[in-house]
């Protein structure tokens, strides 16, 4: 009899734990939409999370951000969440465990402004190097993996981004390229269609924070008379490689960036003149 009761208790506990765990969805990638809904009573979910490349949706009450993303909160919640992808899990909301769900964010990705209108055939991809090396082009050295469907991937030869054409020559293509094909978790998510071995990207979502780590301190450099210090901006948007150059006159023309981008400038050209790039509005400046 005691053995029977013990087995019953173990079964009951296991059943309860299984039920509790079933309420917490495993980690996945989700797009988020927000609407300013007004309710007569709580809870009042204003978000809808949609699992990428799937038809699975869930109403969300709150977005829980990790400490590393708190400074980006204004770019990731409310109306701004309509251009965001979150990686994380959905769990019962502590205040309303039976009525509402929260999204617990592990990683966040923000859509770059001025992409293209998505095609009906677009899907969401992560990109990685497949290790293939060729003597001549085209060389299918990149693997495009369907987000949330990791068993489904395709080898591609190139990835075509829309931003240099849409934003202009001051868009930092080197920065974007460094985020496209990665072996770590800092790569972007591309929304696009594969055509004849090429991924035609409509929109790219870059991981935040950016840069992923603080820019290194610059060494002090003293230049001789009539010289000035100039810098280069690397693929992380950090200033680096200080050097000396002759000082001289600079053009007073100031470039203009399109909507959704701001002008970043630094002393980086001949005669100590400014270098320029147009950075997305949600990216913080990396230098003074």
Automatic annotation (TrEMBL):
Domain of life of the organism encoding this protein: Eukaryota
Signal peptide: 1-18
DUF6748 domain: residues covered: 72-159
Transmembrane segments: none
InterPro entries: DDB_G0275255-like, DUF6748
Protein name: DUF6748 domain-containing protein
Swiss-Prot/TrEMBL keywords: Signal
Pfam families: DUF6748 (PF20533)
